[in-house]
Amino acid sequence: MPYVLVTTQIRLERGPTIVGDEFSDTELMSYLGAVKKTEPGNNFAVYVAEHPPRLILNKLEVRGYKLVGMSGIGQTCIWTMHKPLPDHGGIEFK
Fold first, then answer.
1. Please, what sign has the CA dihedral across residues 74, 33, 45, 1?
2. Residue 75 belongs to domain with CATH number
3. Burial class (CB in 10 A: 0-12, 13-18, 19+), 36
């Protein structure tokens, strides 16, 4: 999984922090302390960690992720993290 989106509400900068969707790497989500939740009325699940975004971003950096973008949308902050894929000897994946 080369990209991870991290989001939180501005008024909740101490957490919780959304760190993945229902298709995210379960091992990484466990490392981040996130659990899968489905909010009433939604037909999709997200992984939520009770930690503040700063701690999540620090943990992702330890795992090799780098910040590639940050934005605010309404009352939500979004960070886009990227981890380069390992070199596969010139093999192209489609």
1. positive
2. 3.30.1410.10
3. middle
